[in-house]
Amino acid sequence: MTTGDAFDRSAGDSPAVLGATRPQFGSVTIRNRGRLPHWEKDNATYFITFRLADSLPRAVLERIQSEYESILRLARQQSRAITASEDLHLKRLTTARIEQYLDSGAGSCSLRDENVAAVLADTLMRFDEKRYRLFAWCVMPNHVHAVVRVFPTERLAQLLHSWKSYTAKMANKILVRRGEFWQREYYDHLLRDEGEFARAVRYVVDNPAKAGLRDWKWVWIRGQGARATAGGVAGATT
Question: What are the φ and ψ backbone dihedral angles of 105, each rounded to 5 degrees?
Answer without folding.
Answer: 80, 35
